From TrEMBL:
The gene is rsmB_2. Its EC number is 2.1.1.176. This is Ribosomal RNA small subunit methyltransferase B. Belongs to the class I-like SAM-binding methyltransferase superfamily. RsmB/NOP family. Residues 1-50 are annotated as: Disordered. Residues 180-470 form the SAM-dependent MTase RsmB/NOP-type domain. It comes from Pseudooceanicola marinus. InterPro entries: MeTrfase_RsmB-F_NOP2_cat (IPR049560), MeTrfase_RsmB-F_NOP2_dom (IPR001678), NusB-like_sf (IPR035926), NusB_RsmB_TIM44 (IPR006027), RCMT (IPR023267), SAM-dependent_MTases_sf (IPR029063). Residues 1-13 have a biased composition (Polar residues).
């Protein structure tokens, strides 16, 4: 990777909404053909607001919510009241259908474009996208087409769109098996592709895109590292070089062996690395400054620290408490702003709020629902948090700064600039089982990217650095 001097998307590249090139012409993600949208992804008027919804109707609402005029992340739409109208299995199916369609949106659009003279209203275009993904994934043509035709009448309230959906999806069904594999991995939108290309080069970006298209397996962190091999056998999982367990497809997580007794928790292999840089923490006081939902809090507690887990969000802190209760680990939980904390700690973990662009394998909605506008403010917040965190660190204390971002301004640059602002602050060479020396950066941090471990199933993009305050 070249020296990380990526232009900051909002400071130097204000590029506006993502460019979704390559699909049918006309209304794309943004302009739903004049249909008013609700903020929770509603797809057409609710004539019976309590009537059950099918998985496909749910998926359509989710897609409309992500790609509508006021784009929402799927995680934000999960709170939408209408989701209560789906049975739990249908809700899971709807999430999967929407997620996988978003992951392959460019491929869906490329298959559709030759069959559309002009783009239909957004809800109908989204129906065609969902149907195309289902057909490409091997769905039975008759059932998929008929169900989406029915949905078309309901969603748009315009029966004349049924014919279009029927005709287009039948054509897609006839060619998907041959044509789909020829399509390139979907490209990142320009607001992200351009700064990442400058930092990593075009070849690496194509590798990121291939990894994003492949999706992510289920990774677990074991509470007691000594039992990792035992749980790998119990779960039929791969034990990764860094100590995490990996399942190709976990299915229902709460039904897996070891879940109920709290032997492990779900955490991407890259996300498990920052806390591991701190090693054994027996007897140390630790502050987890942005703790929720608690993956790293549990690691710090399992490593022997007396942990204070802080987060701004009380709702998200409830997840930390649930996770601690299930795993039998303990930490003091505190709601509040990281910038207003007082006290002194031996170690601090700062997993700062960021663009989350390292997690696109798991969240393919992110490039579609975001446009980079928020990144400038996040960069400012990260450096303010890092400066304040250093005031809470005991002399000689260690701090891990990390973000799940691919953008160097949220990682490498933050540490380089902090070293300039704080004479006496130093970077400790990172050590942890399985840490590949090739991941170590110029300033001494660790950079992971989604294309690493291609034969094992990739990993999230993360940046982390272990810092030491002067005595
Ligand atoms: C990347 S997530 C943390 C993930 C967590 N460390 C884990 O491993 O499970 C960032 C967190 O920062 C929290 N946050 C955002 N602004 C904050 C602030 N000013 N003070 C404290 N927490 C904040 C968010 O609520 C969010 O839970």
């Amino acid at each position: 990777m070249s020296k990380p001097t990526t232009p900051r998307p909002t400071r130097s590249n204000g590029q506006g909404r993502p460019d979704r090139k390559g699909g049918p012409k006309g209304p794309r993600g943004g302009k739903p053909g004049g249909h008013p949208r609700s903020r929770d992804g509603g797809a057409g008027a609710d004539r019976a607001p309590t009537a059950p919804l099918s998985a496909r109707a749910g998926a359509l609402r989710l897609l409309n919510g992500v790609l509508g005029e006021d784009p929402r992340l799927l995680s934000e739409l999960r709170e939408a009241p209408w989701l209560g109208r789906l049975s739990p299995p249908d809700r899971a199916r709807a999430q999967r259908l929407a997620t996988e369609t978003l992951r392959q949106l460019e491929r869906c659009d490329r298959l559709l474009e030759k069959h559309l003279k002009k783009a239909p209203p957004l809800p109908i275009l989204n129906i065609l996208r969902l149907g195309t993904w289902e057909l490409a994934a091997g769905g039975a043509a008759h059932g998929v087409v008929n169900d989406w035709v029915t949905e078309a009448a309901r969603a748009a309230g315009r029966a004349n769109m049924k014919g279009l959906v029927n005709a287009v999806l039948r054509k897609v069904a006839a060619e998907a098996e041959d044509e789909w594999p020829k399509l390139r991995a979907p490209r990142l939108p320009d607001w992200l592709r351009e700064p990442l290309s400058l930092a990593y080069g075009p070849e690496k970006i194509r590798a990121f895109e291939t990894a994003h298209a492949a999706g992510a397996p289920l990774d677990l962190t074991v509470k007691d590292p000594a039992s990792a091999e035992h749980w790998a056998t119990e779960l039929g999982a791969t034990l990764l070089p860094t100590g995490s367990l990996r399942l190709a497809d976990g299915g229902q997580v709460s039904a897996l062996p070891g879940y109920a007794e709290g032997a492990w928790w779900v955490q991407d292999a890259a996300a498990a690395l920052p806390a591991r840089l701190l090693g054994d923490l027996t007897g140390k006081t630790a502050l987890d400054l942005c703790a929720a939902p608690g993956g790293k809090t549990m690691q710090l507690a399992a490593a022997g620290a007396r942990v204070t887990a802080l987060d701004l969000s009380e709702t998200r802190l409830a997840r930390v408490q649930e996770n601690l209760s299930r795993t039998g680990l303990s930490a003091g939980i505190r709601a509040g702003d990281a910038l207003e904390q007082t006290g002194t700690y031996d170690v601090i973990l700062l997993d700062a709020p960021c663009s989350a662009t390292g997690t696109i394998r798991r969240h393919p909605d992110l490039p579609q629902a975001r446009d980079g506008d928020e990144i400038g403010a996040l960069i400012e917040l990260q450096s303010a948090m890092l400066d304040h965190a250093l005031t809470l660190l005991a002399p000689g204390g260690r701090l891990v700064f990390c973000t799940c971002s691919l953008i160097p301004d949220e990682g490498e640059c933050q540490v380089e600039e902090a070293l300039e602002r704080h004479p006496g602050l130093s970077v400790i060479r990172p050590e942890a089982p399985g840490l590949d020396p090739a991941w170590i950066t110029e300033e001494g941090g660790v950079r992971t990217t989604p294309d690493l471990w291609p034969d094992l199933g990739g990993m999230d993009g993360f940046y982390m650095a272990l810092l030491r305050k002067a005595d």
